[in-house]
Amino acid sequence: MKYGRYFLAQLKRIKKLLPEMLCLSVLFFGVTFFVGKTLITGSDYEAGKIKYRIGIMGKEEESFIDMGIFLLESFDDSKYMMELVKYTDFEEAKSDLYDGTLSALCEIPAGFYDSINYLSNDLSIKYYTAAGSRGVTGVFMDEITGIISDYIVYSEAGILSLYDYLDYKGASAEMQNEAVDKLFMSYMSTLLGRGNLVTVKTLGISNGLSTYGYYFTGLTLFLMSVLSFAGISFFIKKNMTLDKLAHSKGIAVPGQIAADFVAYFLCNVVCVTILMVPIFKMLKAKLLEIPEFFTTENVFLFKFYGNVLVAMVLICMFELLIFEVLEGTVNKVIFSFTIILSCAYISGYLYPASFFPESISKVGSLLPTGVAMTFLSSFLTMKGRESATLWLMGYVVAIFVVLCLVRTKKINK
Amino acid sequence: MKISVENISKKYRNKEVLSSVSFEAESGMQVGIVGKNGIGKSTLLSILAGVNKADGGKFLYEGRDLLADKDLRNKVCAYIPQETPLISELSARDNLRMWYSDKALKKELSEGFLKTLGIDRFLKVNVRKMSGGMKKRLSIGCAIYADPRVLILDEPTASLDLECKGIINDYLDAFKKRGGIVVLATHDEKEIENCDALYLLKDKEMNKYVYDGSIKNLVDSF
Fold first, then answer.
1. pLDDT score of A48
2. Interface mutation target, options A2, A7, A10, A12, chain B, most CBs of B under 10 Å
3. Residue A266 to chain B, least CA–CA distance (Å)
4. Under 8 Å CB-to-CB from A382, ≥6 apart: which residues?
5. Lower CB count within 10 Å: N or C terminus of chain A?
6. Are B58 and B7 in contact (CB under 8 A)?
7. What percent of chain B has pLDDT over 70?
């Protein structure tokens, strides 16, 4: 038996399955697109962060409330978790609290500023919350209370210390008040200027990618992973008798594996290429905006496509291994589906891997699916290309060797 | 032309399946191997075909050991296993193309054994849509691409209708008349009757059985 004829037969096999694979590919593309849209444009991820809305209400003059809100938002701990909203009408604030617009409401009583100024601490801030959100907003209330307490306690300590010192030095009441006012303004200007001390830059979710870039990469790889099920019939009805006979006729195991892989890979290339066309069109038309796609010139898109194909080599090789190891139609369908989806999930295709516990995140990054993710990410971030490529090539070679061993064992059974 | 199988032995996970199995055959002979299901008939045939490895023994063809000479074995022997080694997604023609060159295929379909087997009548049929008889004939057609001298068949007419059995038996007769040797495992009475020598595989060993025409006696000796 000549190898060329055997190889051609595998290509003919996959050609027969191509229409079925294309139909299923379109279906999977639709599902992946829907999943992606839900993940990326869901309200929780729209701004890349989740915030709780806390209402601040008071009968004091507007500048005091505004200054207070500004001071609270200057603290790092609260900056990304809370959004503070000013209210002057208690009924309006209560209505928003009831309908869920607010998570909680803080009411600053009349005269609160003066009582702080006169170091009396007689008045307290009232806190309102809806029963369902008591738990989490209670945490935020503790946060706000802590911040306000710190302001009050430490500034009071400073002010009282100054009074004592000036009194000891025999300064007049007028001089003491002038000095304390200066100290107080010094405190305020330090706190007000705190926001200018640091520049905050959001680097994205993980791998150095932006939120959109991360999900675009993950979902592209997820689509490629599920495309394998479109070609599952290539493996289910595979005739082991023919493999054994071909082996006895001189078609060595590596040659058989290579023929199977190339046929399967080429079919996936056709499906992915067809699906990439609408994606690229959306990128060019700005219907899809990925920060890492700094240009939608054809050269860049073609380079991205090339990298997708390279990542797909690893994914196809990995799936070939799963189908080769599993025996029986039911096992091939059910377990391969479970394994591939699990690997895709742990590797962060659908949910940022950095959100998982470190041990799981590490495992995910070492799986073939994780290596593919790292490789494709490295193209978009232009970081770690060499190591990502080496890892990918190493995995491809290793999986090929394992495939040969598994097939040899099956033939010799 | 003569073949000689000498002391073939085989173990599966330390369990001996075949022990010192031997037999001989000459041109124009049909050798039948009978025995209970699971006794090792298929294993023996697959060893002779080179699909399985023997733990010991020789398969001599004109004095040369075919178990050691893969190229000669592929040239001389054709193996038709019980399960048809066909690609179900492809047609009969595409399956044949895996084995034959285009020129050889055209010749065999027009005047050779492929025509004798009737394969020219269902060339475009997809294997999935073929009957058992068509698949078996196609398997034989694929196996004889190298114009072999020895045919090794594992229950060639099992589950086939009378017409297909007739076609295959006619083909085997024609093959023997050309000087070929047929070695087959069988449970079929007609095939047993056509055998020039019958061997009974029992308790890991194989011994010649003189068939007296009574299937009952044969079965009793299993």
1. 45
2. A12
3. 17
4. none
5. C
6. yes
7. 100
b/e for A82-118, b at 16 or more Cβ within 10 A? bebbebeeeeebbebbeeeebbbbbbbeeebbeebee
Q: How far is CA A359 from CA A160, A218, A356, A362, in A?
A: 52, 20, 8, 5
Q: Which region, left, alpha or beta, applies to residue A60 given φ > 0 means left and ψ of -120 to 50 means alpha? A: beta
- Note the CATH number of domain B29-50+75-220: 3.40.50.300
At which residue do the structure tokens 């196809």 appear?
A: A316
Our CA-based measurement puts residue B124 at a distance from the nearest CA of chain A, in whole angstroms, of: 14
Cβ proximity of A162 and A175 under 8 Å: no
Q: What is the average pLDDT score of chain A? A: 80
Q: How far apart are CA A389 and CA A374, in angstroms?
A: 9
C-alpha distances out from residue A389 to A113, A313, A321, A353, Å? 62, 12, 20, 20
Domains of chain A are 2-43+206-411 (no CATH), 50-197 (3.40.190)
Q: Which structure tokens are listed for A220? A: 């592209």
**Contact assignment for A9 to B90 by CB distance below 8 Å:** yes
What ipTM did this prediction achieve?
0.87
Contact A248 B79 (CB under 8 A): yes
Under 8 Å CB-to-CB from A280, ≥6 apart: which residues? Answer: A296, A301, A305
Q: B94 pLDDT exceeds 70?
A: yes
Q: How many whole angstroms separate alpha carbon A139 and alpha carbon A143? A: 6
DSSP letters spanning A326-366: --SHHHHHHHHHHHHHHHHHHTTSSS-GGGS-HHHHHHHHH
Beta carbons of B87 and A244 less than 8 Å apart = no
Instruction: Among A9, A249, A412, select the one facing B87 at the smallest CB separation.
Output: A9
The secondary structure of residue A194, as a DSSP letter, is: G
CA A55 – CA A248 distance, rounded (Å): 79
Tens-digit pLDDT profile for residues A362-410: 898 899 999 999 999 999 888 888 999 999 999 999 999 999 999 999 8
Task: Choose among B79, B85, B97: nearest Cβ to A5.
Answer: B97
Task: Give the span between the Cα atoms of A142 and A361, in whole angstroms.
Answer: 32
Each residue of A280-333: pLDDT tens digit?
A: 888 888 887 777 887 778 888 899 999 999 999 999 999 999 999 988 888 888
Interface of B with A in 89-118 (CB under 8 A): 89-90, 94-95, 97-99
What DSSP assignment string belongs to A285-335? TTSS--TT-----HHHHHHHHHHHHHHHHHHHHHHHHHHHH--SHHHHHHH
Question: Angle, nearest 10°, between helix axes A173-192 and A62-74?
Answer: 50
Contact A248, B66 (CB under 8 A): no
